[in-house]
User: Fold ABC transporter permease from Neobacillus paridis.
Amino acid sequence: MKLGDQFRFVRQNMKKNKTRVFMTILATAMGCAFLIVLASVGFGLQKSVVKEITEQRIVTQIDVHGKELKDGGFRPITDKDIATFEKIKDVKAVTRRNMLQQDGIYSIGRYQAGTETYVTDFPSEVKAGFELSAGHLPKADNEIVVGYDFPFVLGTKEEVEDLYDNKGHVKKKYRYPENLLGKELSLTVKQLKKGKEEEKKLKLTVVGIGKKPTKDWMQDRSVFISKKVLNEIESFTKTPRGMLLGPNDSPPEKLNVKEDNYDEVKIYAKNMEAVQKIVDQLKDKNYPTYSVVNELKEVNMMFTIAKAGLIFIGTIAILIASIGIYNTMTMAVTERSPDIGIMKAIGANPKTIKQIFLLESSYIGLIGACIGTAVSYGISYAVNFIIPLIIKQAFGKELPAGLTFSDIPLILPIICIVICFAVTLLSGYRPAQRATRVDVLKAMRREV
Assistant:
């Protein structure tokens, strides 16, 4: 009997028992839908977490915290280390910054802002992707570049209760009204000397404004000064990086500042695939690092375990549905014993008879799996739409934008169909074997 004839024979027999076959397919579809929807929660939450991590950090960025010494000590990164990093294959850029160890107070007229201040190497920053929205990079020691959001926090010195808006910016009516490019700001730094607070003011000109951050919730208020300006601050404070002394602290007898030590070093890989290789090389050389790839690896491992558990639980539903398939196929063998007897009498091979019943059981399973998959997509869409509304109405809280409760990647229906196909084959195997052992004479008398 040809395969096409076997399919026609199977369909004809299924039509004779529409109700029973329908209920069996329905049970299988429900089991598949349960498996897919349950596992889709793991895929959805993983997608949301990974998206959140990758949006907050640049995926090709590697933070280098220093170098571990053989005696267990720890030292900051130096120019020699920078040179080593730049020689590593697939490294795009190595940025290095030193941070002013006090809030820099910048003022112009009756407006001021306190923010983080850095000294950086602009050529390496540009290689890493640093861009300006206006102006140019500093060419003189007294020229500075400010972050995109700095003009929005340069507000009045007067005490105002409702100074900031919901974005953390100074409200327009209290904000410096003019374009900052070309304007001279006064940087004020402080230090305790003989129990009294003293101030030093430095005149700096804004020549560049950084590019707007890619995400609305991100803000860049940084100010970049020259190394010479930082040296002037250190000469005044008598401390490294302009660090403020406490009331009981005494200034060091000698200012000991190592020019080639850096507070913040970042390596940028050429692509995401190269990050792990670079991290491994740095680890071998005793450089502790952090990258998004490290975090993603841990997150993905955790969610892989969770998804495997959810798929296992969902498989139980399909196993329960397989009981219905087993029952349907057992009854089919009993009801069709005369047909089996006739096929044997005309010389049908027992393997062909077995194949027909396995074909029928797998046919039922695959139809149920396809219906269950289609239904699961509808349920997944409904879950992502309805649950945020329920949470908002019940608890009065807005969920983070882009949060996905349920996500069905292509691999999930494929896993479900494979599991369902395997289970239905196992369910139909014993009834199919029983069909090959039907006695021809008893079958003709309608006895099994």
Q: What stands out?
A: The chain has a mean pLDDT of 86. The CA atoms of residues 180 and 221 lie 14 Å apart.
